[in-house]
Design brief:
Strand content: 25-35%
Distance between the termini: 22 Å
Number of helices: 3
Radius of gyration: 16 Å
Largest sheet: 5 strands, antiparallel
CATH architecture: Roll
Number of strands: 5
Helix content: 10-25%
Order of helices and strands: EHHEEEEH
Number of domains: 1
Strand order of the largest sheet: 1-3-4-5-2
Length: 140
């Protein structure tokens, strides 16, 4: 069963810290996955939920697949805007898609996605809780 909502974008803002850059002064490629994680947390928060509550109820959303396509470099002290939305909401999985931009109107720096499985306390795949499906598929 696919409950994929019409995309509702949430924008998370983040200033690049020096420790996120490599020897060339460019954001180290793996940090984009951290930026994706940050924006996912902000997405849940903007929708009235959070990961902590989900975990308290015995569910987790581990990343089972991740992809990032780099288009232009980000550098120290730049303000990044990470746009995130739920692209696909299935019975036991969620796919988030991301765009990373320099400022709100700046160039597109990276795009990507993460696929998350819903698992129970035992670590086995399970159906997404109804309240999470409602949270992510209803209009804000």
């Amino acid at each position: 069963m696919d409950h994929s909502p019409a995309p509702v974008h949430v924008e998370a803002r983040l200033r690049v810290i020096y420790g996120d850059t490599d020897q060339m002064g460019v954001v180290y490629y793996a940090n984009y996955l951290r930026y994706f994680e940050f924006s996912r947390s902000e997405y849940f928060r903007a929708r009235g939920g959070n990961y902590v509550e989900l975990e308290r109820t015995g569910f987790g959303l581990p990343v089972v697949e991740a992809h990032c396509e780099y288009r232009a470099p980000a550098r120290y002290d730049e303000l990044l805007v990470i746009r995130v939305h739920v692209a696909q909401l299935k019975r036991a999985s969620i796919r988030f898609e991301y765009q990373v931009l320099r400022d709100a109107t700046g160039p597109l720096l990276a795009t990507g996605y993460t696929l998350h499985a819903c698992v129970g306390r035992d670590g086995r795949p399970t159906r997404l809780p109804a309240d999470v499906v409602k949270l992510l598929s209803s209009p804000p």
